[in-house]
Amino acid sequence: TEGTRGGHQIPPMLRLMSSDLVLDEPDDFGMEDLPALSRLVHWAGMLGSRVLLSSATLPPALIEGLFQAYLAGRQQFQQHRGRPGQPLNVCCAWFDEFSAEASEHCAAESYRAEHQNFVQKRLARLARAEARRHAEILPLPIAQAKREIVCAELAHALRPQMSRLHQLNGTVDPASGKKISFGLVRFANINPLVAVAQELIRLGAENGQRIHLCVYHSRHPLLVRSAIENRLDRLLNRKQPQAVFAEPEIQQALAAGPEADHLFVVLATAVAEVGRDHDYDWAIVEPSSMRSIIQLAGRVRRHRPEAYAPTNLLLLDTNIQHLTTGISQPAFLRPGFESSNPAARNFRLLSHRLAELLTPEQLKAIDASSRIRERDALSPTGNLVDLEHARLRELMQGPSSGQTPHSLPVPLWWATGAHLSGYLQRRDPFRLDKLGRQRYGLLPDEDGEIGFYRFGDDGKPVAVDNLLHRISLEPGPGLGFWGEPDYPAALASLAERLDMELRDCAEKFGVLDLPLKSVEGGLRVDEEWWYCSALGFWQKK
Asked: Which pLDDT score is estimated for 380?
């Protein structure tokens, strides 16, 4: 709906004029995307559309800011399309699993009061809900070092904790008497995830155990990622808890060795948090933001609402970024809300240890409570939750009186004449990728050998095998892979099922987008990549 030249924005605006706008998980967008999102909501108000925000973790600053954007747009719609003298009243409604409420509002103050009233009722109901997730902070006595050293030490720290969570939360197969559990270990970024996975693979499982490992992130070829997600969607549907033991591949895994304990472990990035209806028995989380922790916790015992007592969620007390750079550099960013701007000292945490950044109440209830309500007095430099609320409030509503803004607040779009120029659209576009991304693919040649190809601007693939380093893995004792298919076999099976030529199928489903390294003098500089079918693509940096 935004155009700075030409008329390409006209068809989307006409579409929006005759549509409702549904924003699913709007709080999942990064800070850099919220200005564009607010402009879209403002356009929806001007064009007379209705807007639905769908999420369990909507912070008040974000909701109030988007309401103000919509209200400003609706005022323009009312002026030109309403009846003369008719007052502006926006019909607003709130829905959750407990109730639904509706009221009309013409000012941000009355809307804020009604929203807070709804939140208070929801908090009271959440407080009475059966507790099924219990979190602990896991101290990491790892000294600051290079990333490969930190990741290796972290793998050694994780393995016994995975075993402990398995013993606490596993389920016994009634047929074989073996215990299984499904666990998720979530990392903030792909490259450290792969480094930890490699060390875990080398270590293998503890005595009497077998680990079935699945590495799940966005840098798998399309058909591989789809196969992983299909398998996880099927096996992690725990609405009938005993049904998983009837799955042939689970029985096959249990019969493959004499071990009495089987850990099905998914190492994943944020792709496991949002939009995946998975139910895990336990999880370990590398922290990046409180929102991420809450979303991840929602995947633990997701389909089993009954009360549950054992510890099933471990929060690493810091992240890999802090262990490699120390307190002098921000660690809870990309992803996270800490600011990298040296001038924004009020958005830089004084500690990167969760034990010092979360209150006992915030740690006790890992649910939407801390996200949907602000504390009366925010401490953005000393509390992880307050940091998120403070940054969102400054961006969505502007700085407090007497404070200097560290970013352009989104109300500038409708409160000034900035919309008459294209400056804000160019400054804060949606999903800006400064370096850009390049499409690559694993394609078969005439002899059926799989090669690495880059797709040019004309869409034609060019061989770039010199950019790819293939590695093989030698798993330690008691460790195998689970979840990922063998790429050539999966490609052949898919081509046969779709009645396609193998090469055509690979060019459509064996592709993925990878970031560019840099652009020098207007020329693209390609990155070197490492690849393994079980680990996907990653970089050694």
From this structure: 94
pLDDT tens digits for range 237-284 = 999 999 999 999 999 999 988 999 999 999 999 999 877 899 999 999
> What distance separates the 2 farthest-apart alpha carbons in the chain?
80
Give residue 513's region: left, alpha or beta (phi > 0; psi -120 to 50): beta
Long-range contacts formed by 441-446: CB under 8 A, 24+ apart:
441/221, 441/506, 441/507, 441/510, 441/511, 441/512, 442/221, 442/487, 442/506, 442/510, 443/503, 443/506, 443/507, 443/510, 444/488, 444/491, 444/502, 444/503, 444/506
Residue written as token pair 């500089």: 525
Strands 468-470 and 529-532, bridge-based pairing = parallel
Closest CA to 62 of 98, 33, 21, 99: 33
Burial label for 366, CB within 10 Å (0-12, 13-18, 19+), is buried
- Element holding 224 (H helix, E strand): helix 222-235
Is residue 522's pLDDT more than 60? no
> Under a CB-based contact definition with an 8 Å cutoff, are residues 290 and 370 in contact?
yes
Instruction: Report the alpha-carbon distance of residue 74 to residue 92 in Å, rounded.
Output: 13
DSSP bridge pairs for 100: 95
Interatomic CA distance for residues 56 and 96, integer angstroms: 8
pLDDT of residue 135: 96
State yes or no: pLDDT of 86 exceeds 90.
no
pTM for the predicted model, two decimal places: 0.92
Contact 513, 538 (CB under 8 A): no
For residues 283 and 427, give the distance between their C-alpha atoms in angstroms, rounded to a whole number: 39
Give residue-wise pLDDT tens across range 434-447: 667 899 999 999 88
At residue 521, does pLDDT exceed 60?
no
pLDDT of residue 402: 58
Handedness of CA 200, 203, 206, 208 (dihedral sign): positive
Residue whose C-alpha is closest to residue 163's, from 259, 262, 244: 262
Phi, psi of 469 (to 5 degrees): -110, 110
The vertex-295 CA angle with 360 and 323, nearest 5°, equals 65
pLDDT at 218 over 80: yes
pLDDT tens per residue, range 482-511: 877 789 999 999 999 999 999 999 999 999
Write b or e for each residue in 301-331: b if 16 or more Cβ atoms lie within 10 A of its Cβ, otherwise e. Answer: bbeeeeebeeebbbbbbbbbbbbbeeeeebb
Q: How many residues does the chain have?
A: 541
- What beta strand segments (E) does 367-484 contain? 437-444, 450-455, 461-463, 468-470, 479-481
> 207 versus 273: which is more confidently predicted?
207
* DSSP run (H or E) holding 529: strand 529-532
Residue pair 39/373 in contact (Cβ under 8 Å)? The answer is: no
Q: Report d(CA 172, CA 261) in Å as an integer.
A: 9
Which residues, 6+ apart, have CB-to-CB distance to 328 below 8 Å?
Answer: none
